[in-house]
Amino acid sequence: MLQNRNYQLLLITLVMAIFSACNKPKVEPETNNYLQLSVQGSSDGSVSITNDNTTPIQFDVLLAYTPKEDVTLNFVLVGNDNNLLRLEGCPLTLKAGTKTGSFKVAINKADVITETQTVTLKAGEFSNPHIVLQKEWSIHVKPNVELPDLTEQQKQFIKGYKENLGIDLYRVLGKLKGHVTIKFPSGDEAFNGNSLTGRTFDFTSFVTLSNNATATDPIIKMVTNPLGLDDFLFETLRKETTEDVNEAWYAQPYPIAIMKLLGYTPTSKGIFDVTSKETFNAMLDNLKLDNGKIAFIGKKLPSTSSDESDAIMAVPFEYNYSLWNKLAKMDPNTVVEVIEGDAKTGYALKDILLSGGSLAPQDYLFTSNIDKDEFNNNTFIAPKAIYDFSKGEISFQFGFDHTNSSGYTQIFVTYQMHPAK
């Protein structure tokens, strides 16, 4: 009898042990928890700011997995000469159960700089060694814009615009604040990054009177960050070329040879990381104000043609891209070695540029007419720009596409005028 009781107790103990083991939470092996940074909905790793901008850049933090314990994240600014930038809200602590947060990078002092300085945002010390920063960021600090004083003739032009046309141009000159909304077409996910269907953000531009203005034609020029799109255009250009999200550019042997000629080798991820060394700026001229509307679209040619029959109607940005500038200054007869299969062949640089090796922004940005629908997939919007002094606003809407677009990206921009005096 005692033996049976001992057997029963042993059996009960064994069953309870098995039940306890089955219900004990599994301890997952420690794996890397990747941390993604994004700015204004983009996680591409490059952002710009002028060194008189009082609005900090906000970096949004997203962890792949929700941490079970509090984590502290510290970041560092490398190449931050003369403490041009400062971190705000850093170190950043994410409480257990939270995988999102934010910190800021601000202009520390408006030192006079004459050229763009690039500072790299890197991971500092993280309290959890398994948290890994997915991508470092390049922060391009651009010099203040010193707009030239208006000439006496220009002042007379502006006076005449107000008296004869009712256009108070002083309300749109100088530093203007704006807001942009970008809506992506379905199928452009590779170019959208973190933003899925769209992005929205604030920005500033510097506006001056165009040299093409006359006594009867008020024409303005956006000198910096036109329509708020500098960073967006640069990001799209890189994703079509040096970061080639569709692997269409890389599929050709000529672009690879061009990058080698320019001193670049691919990273471990197979891309050419140009953000820490190269600069990109755009300008937009010949914006004519007339009876409440602004004429802003014009003809755009590829870099390889001067034939008007090759032109399309687009927003005619003027681009200043340091990588393309270097290439464009080279002797067009320079012999470039190209690897084709198992063979190495020398081609003249001018022939490679004609065969897909270009880095000119105009060859990849705005590749379809924007004044008529060339996609026929319900992404087209008619280009329009208006100004309204009673509301104190200037607004633009237009479609944008690029080499591997699946449709038009719709862009809406609103500027706030200066108050009337």
* Weakly predicted, low-confidence segments: 1-12, 17-29
Shape: globular
Structural class assignment? alpha+beta
Distance N to C terminus: 106 Å
User: Using only CA atoms, what is the Rg?
Assistant: 28 Å
Major beta-sheet overview: 9 strands, antiparallel
Query: Helix and strand string, N-terminal first?
Result: HEEEEEEEEEEHEHEEHHEEEEEHEEHEEE
Task: Determine the number of helices (DSSP H or I, runs of at least 4 residues).
Answer: 7
Helix content: 10-25%
Tell me what the structure shows.
By secondary structure, the protein is an alpha+beta fold. The protein has seven helices and 23 strands. It has helices at residues 2-23, 152-165, 189-192, 230-240, 253-261, 322-328, 349-357, and strands spanning 33-38, 46-50, 57-63, 71-78, 85-88, 92-94, 100-107, 117-126, 131-133, 137-142, 174-183, 198-209, 219-224, 280-290, 293-295, 298-300, 312-314, 318-321, 335-340, 343-348, 384-388, 393-400, 409-416. The strands form five sheets. Strands 11, 12, 13, 14, 15, 18, 21, 22 and 23 form a nine-stranded antiparallel beta sheet that branches. α5 packs across α7. The radius of gyration is 28 Å and the shape is globular. The termini are far apart. The model is unreliable at 1-12 and 17-29 (pLDDT under 50).
